[in-house]
Amino acid sequence: MAIDTRALQPDVVLMDIRMPVMDGLSATEILKSDVASPAVLVLTTFDTDEYLLRALRLGANGFLLKDTPPRDIIDAVKKVSDGESMLSPSAVGRLVSAWREHDSRSNPRENSLDVLTTRELEVAIAVSQGLSNAEISAHLYMSIATVKTYVSRILSKLDCANRVQIAIAVFESRPLRGM
């Protein structure tokens, strides 16, 4: 059964990897191609690097395993709805390892963070550390509304779909910027 997200306008879609008719990654790609797309939280039993990396590249806002405690899933849905990103602990470690391996095999690329102002870079680094908007607000002495504005600018300037992609951009640039 297909669900029309344009008609229902959900804030968050919980997406499984394996579904009848269309797999969850293809569905995520279609959802995220729409300008007014909802946040996508992948909730799956398939804990593989391939699925994790593809989901994040396609714009998923989070990736959790189905063995995540129900209370944590509810918390993740709320955070993703607020514009934050959520990754299962095992996914974080694998993501860092995958990007290190990728970085060591590839040629250094142009530093995409050079387009950011100093304050935007501070916010981007805070995002990459997994801080929420409220935590960034307290840490950098700015209002939550200002943090949201900076995050929006960073997303636009770095051509990122979500906070996870900001974190990846910061991570990729660390060796180049000495962070």
List the helices and strands and how they pair.
Layout: H1 5-8, E1 12-15, H2 24-32, E2 39-44, H3 49-57, E3 62-65, H4 70-81, E4 86-87, H5 89-105, H6 118-128, H7 133-140, H8 144-157, H9 163-177
Task: Describe the overall structure.
The structure is a single chain. This protein is an alpha/beta fold and 179 residues long. The protein folds into 2 domains: 5-96, Rossmann fold (3-Layer(aba) Sandwich); 107-177, Orthogonal Bundle (Arc Repressor Mutant, subunit A), CATH 1.10.10.10. It has helices at 5-8, 24-32, 49-57, 70-81, 89-105, 118-128, 133-140, 144-157, 163-177; strands at 12-15, 39-44, 62-65, 86-87. Strands 1-2-3-4 form a 4-stranded parallel β-sheet. Strand 2, helix 3 (49-57) and strand 3 form a beta-alpha-beta unit. The model has no long low-confidence stretch (mean pLDDT 80).
